[in-house]
Amino acid sequence: VKNTQIEFIAVSEGVEKLSKSQFTNLKIQTIYNNVDVEEEIVNFPEKFVDYILAVGRMDNSNVKQFDILIDCYSKSVLPQKNIKLLILGEGVLLDALRKQVIDLNLQDLVCFKGFEKHLYSYYSHAKFLVLSSKYEGLGMVLIESLMCETPVVSFDCDFGPSEIITNKYNGLLVENQNKIELTHAMNSFIEDEKLYVFCKRNSKRSVFKFSEESISKKWQ
Question: What's the pLDDT tens digit per position in 68-86?
Fold first, then answer.
């Protein structure tokens, strides 16, 4: 960076820290993306279904690692309790993921919904959202879910989840890439009702810093 007068904005504190470590003269600060929740869709087909939710692309990079999520889900208590896993998104890995589901005999419980324009209805009616990514820039789906009063479970990956989730307050933050602990976390939200209700109650208030009102002040 030759022009030291230029100031940069990072999408998360993790990205800011990494950028500063590589470019020591960089003028940079973090301003999060804001999230606004749209109105709920009345005729929502999954309204009366017990499910958890995952959202993201299915490209060759496999950043979202839905294969790991499906494997962890299969080993959890959720299938035997008939709690479904709904995955929203599209991409070249979809066929491989469908095959994995069939091989695990979970085709009645794991549902691929494709691209959905009205995400907030899915967030609002889910028991919780799971993020199983290799890495994130911030993790907008976590914020969107919490804005809809739905708690979250996430790997503590780079970057973002630890800036959004306070463990056992608005969600469960799992040791990065620890599949056993991810399974245990999903079980906890089903078996420990007191913990789940507490996190759900705190969900929306925990992400006020990502609201338009808060973020607009940062830009100003």
Answer: 999 999 999 999 999 999 9
Listed residue (24, 71, 33, 30) closest to 147, CA to CA: 33
Give the tokens for residue 8. 């940069």
Bridge partners of 30, per DSSP, are: 10
Residue linked to tokens 């469960």: 172
DSSP reduced 3-state for 20: helix
Q: What 8-state DSSP symbol labels residue 80?
A: G
State mean pLDDT over 102-120.
93
Distance CA 190, CA 127 (A): 9
The DSSP annotation for 193-215 comes to HHHHHHHHHHTTGGGGGGSHHHH
Beta-carbon contacts of 14 under 8 Å, excluding residues fewer than 6 positions away, are 158, 159, 160, 162, 163
Q: How far is residue 26's CA from residue 23's CA, in Å, rounded to a whole number? A: 5
* Residues 13, 210 contacting (CB under 8 angstroms): no
Query: Can you tell me the distance from the alpha carbon of 56 to that of 102, in angstroms, rounded to the nearest whole number?
Result: 21
Coil/strand/helix, residue 99: helix
Respond yes or no on whether the N-terminal peptide bond of residue 208 is cis (omega within 30° of 0): no
Q: How do residues 154-211 score in pLDDT, each as one tens digit?
A: 999 999 999 999 999 999 999 999 999 999 999 999 999 999 999 999 999 999 888 7
